Structures are given as structure tokens and as C-alpha cells.
Inverse folding.
């Protein structure tokens, strides 16, 4: 994979955040800054997804479950994903994502190796470990232990699950990675409580959410997400509910009422070619719909 030939073009940026700035070299590529908060005692939670022109995040077909096909292999989408991962202390996904993408490691090194040294320099400068904490949400502890994340002793995995799921994990876990379990009595997992535990037990200050749509729907429902990074792809995915391959949207498992809906407020927009790269500030209603 080659480095980017052209930078992003900033169409607007209305953020006035304070915090850690990007180095000048990364700002030149991103055409601006992305500051993340520090020292306020809370976890900054942000997400990253790619969305098709018709609002789908996956083709949901064998070998094509991830967002890469929706992005059409866009190098700027992968570069941005690497940037977002490089500033995360932990990356959280649902356990189904681990089943669908067993080869994946949630790190900047995996998604954009051409810039691995530059992004690692950013992690080092901001005091982060070589790899983010790999966090998986699981209702029943059914984990794909053949996943690449379990093969390396350099990786640290946390599985958040119920007491029944924890027993299953402890009985079946294997591999070279360090695996910890966070047990919660509530099902599904209380994500606000989990974020607090990740902060207290592992020092997580910046948490990136990447999927899947039900796990993300739960995160929005629990009102834990601060910022949403969303790549808008020109690709049309379509959907045919006459078969069993329903193609999911960005938020699944939640439904707001017309008068009580969450809002995503656009705060910046960048472009490269036929792709748009938005950042949205999450605004929540008084309660779930």
C-alpha cells in the first residue's frame, strides 16, 4: 500500500475543541487539525464507519462483510481509519465482527502499514501503547478464538460479557494474547458503566467504536458517543429483504420516536475525489425513543 498521493480537502471545519493537536505533517495530509480532549477525567468516545450512498454499511455477503467493500478500497478512508486508531487507547467492537473478520487486528499497523511508523510516532508522543486495547462485547461469551487478535503476545484483549458468558470465555479461551474478562450482570452490557471500568482499570482516555451496527446502536442508545466520523461512499449497495441477507444500516436495534430522536450535528467535512469525510457531534434527546 502506497502513501496518499493527494491530501484531503477541508470544505468546512467549525470545531473549536481544545486538547492535543495533530503534528504538522499529519495536519498537512488531513488539511486541518483534530484535537482530542485531555485531562478532564472522562473518556473521549468516538466512532468510525463508512456508509454507502444509500445508507448501508455492509454487503453482508460471504467474504464481503466488512466496510472495505462499501468504501471501494478508498485509500483516504483507510488512512483516516489508521489515524483514528492511532489515537485510541482502546478499540471496541461486537463479537460478531470478530467472527466475520477473523483475520483483523484493530490497529493502525493492520489497516495502513505504509504509514505505520508515522502513526506509531504519534502514539508514542501521546503516551499510548504500541497497540490499542482490543475490546469485544459479547452477550454469551461465544468468541471466535481463531481470530488473529489472540495469536500475538503483544496484544491485550478485554471481553465484556455476562456472568454466563464469562464462564464460557474462561473455559474456552486460548492463544498467546493476554485476555481479561469484565463481567456485568446487566444484559445487554451497560456501556456507560463499561466505559468507566475501562478508564479505571486500564487507563483508557480515548475509546474508538467500530462496529457492528447493533453494538453501535447500543452505544448510541446508551449515549456514550461524543463524535462520529463517517465516510460517505459513492457506492450503491441496495437491499433485498426477500432473502435472508438484509444489509444493515448504521444503527440497528434501536428506534427513536419522531419527537425524541438523537441528532448528529456536522462539525467538519472533508473531501477527496468522490468521497466525503464528515465529523459529527452527537446530540441526544432526554431519553431513548
Amino acid at each position: 500500500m502506497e502513501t496518499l498521493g493527494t491530501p484531503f480537502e477541508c470544505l468546512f471545519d467549525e470545531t473549536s475543541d481544545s486538547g492535543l493537536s495533530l503534528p504538522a505533517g499529519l495536519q498537512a495530509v488531513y488539511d486541518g487539525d483534530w484535537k482530542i480532549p485531555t485531562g478532564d477525567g472522562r473518556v473521549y468516545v468516538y466512532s468510525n464507519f463508512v456508509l454507502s450512498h444509500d445508507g448501508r454499511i455492509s454487503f453482508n455477503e460471504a467474504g464481503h462483510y466488512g466496510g472495505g467493500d462499501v468504501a471501494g478500497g478508498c485509500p483516504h478512508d483507510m488512512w483516516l481509519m489508521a489515524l483514528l486508531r492511532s489515537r485510541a487507547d482502546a478499540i471496541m467492537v461486537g463479537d460478531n465482527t470478530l467472527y466475520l473478520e477473523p483475520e483483523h487486528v484493530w490497529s493502525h499497523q493492520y489497516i495502513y502499514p505504509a504509514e505505520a511508523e508515522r502513526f506509531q510516532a504519534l502514539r508514542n508522543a501521546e503516551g499510548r501503547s504500541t497497540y490499542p486495547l482490543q475490546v469485544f462485547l459479547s452477550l454469551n461469551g461465544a468468541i471466535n478464538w481463531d481470530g488473529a487478535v489472540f495469536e500475538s503476545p503483544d496484544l491485550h484483549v478485554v471481553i465484556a460479557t455476562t456472568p454466563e458468558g464469562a464462564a464460557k470465555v474462561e473455559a474456552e479461551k486460548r492463544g498467546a494474547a493476554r485476555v481479561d474478562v469484565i463481567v456485568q450482570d446487566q444484559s445487554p452490557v451497560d456501556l456507560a458503566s463499561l466505559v468507566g471500568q475501562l478508564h479505571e482499570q486500564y487507563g483508557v482516555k480515548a475509546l474508538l467504536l467500530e462496529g457492528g451496527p447493533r453494538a453501535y446502536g447500543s452505544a448510541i442508545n446508551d449515549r456514550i458517543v461524543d463524535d462520529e466520523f463517517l465516510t460517505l461512499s459513492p457506492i450503491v449497495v441496495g437491499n433485498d429483504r426477500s432473502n435472508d441477507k438484509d444489509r444493515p444500516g448504521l444503527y440497528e436495534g434501536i428506534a427513536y420516536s419522531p419527537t425524541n430522536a438523537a441528532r448528529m450535528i456536522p462539525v467538519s467535512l472533508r473531501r477527496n475525489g468522490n468521497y466525503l469525510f464528515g465529523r459529527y457531534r452527537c446530540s441526544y434527546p432526554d431519553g431513548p425513543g
